[in-house]
Amino acid sequence: MSNDSRRLVLVVDDDLDIADSIGDVLRSGGHEVRLVSTGAEAVAVAAEARVGLVLLDWRLPDEPAGAALVRRLRDACGYPVPVVVLSADPLSLAEAREAAVSDYLPKPFEIADLMHLVDSFC
User: Fold this and answer.
1) pLDDT band for position 5 (50/70/90)?
2) Residues 6+ positions from 110 with CB-CB distance below 8 Å
3) Which long-range CB contacts under 8 A does 2-8 form with residues at least 24 apart?
4) What CATH number should be reported for the domain holding residue 94?
5) What's the pLDDT score for residue 99?
6) Nearest to 53 by CA among 110, 104, 118, 115
């Protein structure tokens, strides 16, 4: 790997148990992971680190969330960072597509599906 910093995966989920589980799985797969629970924290990380992928819970309780958060993350990164939406809400799929996210993985998901998706971007 010539650029390990591109492997940073930013996990944005207000359910800390889910975020911790995702983080553990990704770390065991060799990825550097940052976990945050709010859109504001996600934007702050995107502004300071070279994020290779964002795994985003679409329905965060605080703003920015959803499409507004996708725009803010990409602005903060300064490049079109891939954003994969993780959501249990079937209505979020249409909203996520409108926001031009890179992919969508419905919750609950299989670990193998998550790893395949992450590895395809990082």
Assistant:
1) very low
2) none
3) 4/32, 5/32, 5/49, 5/50, 5/52, 6/50, 6/52, 6/122, 7/31, 7/32, 7/52, 7/122, 8/32, 8/33, 8/34, 8/49, 8/50, 8/51, 8/52, 8/53
4) 3.40.50.2300
5) 95
6) 118
43: containing domain: 4-121
Count of C-beta atoms within a 10 Å radius of residue 28: 10
Q: Given pLDDT bands bounded at 50, 70 and 90, which one contains residue 1? A: very low
In whole angstroms, give the CA distance from residue 62 to residue 37.
10
Number of domains present in the structure of the chain: 1
Integer-rounded Cα radius of gyration of the chain: 13
Of 45 and 3, the structure prediction assigns the larger pLDDT to 45
**63-105 pLDDT, tens digit each:** 999 999 999 999 999 999 999 999 988 899 999 999 999 999 9
**Other beta carbons within 10 Å of 111:** 13
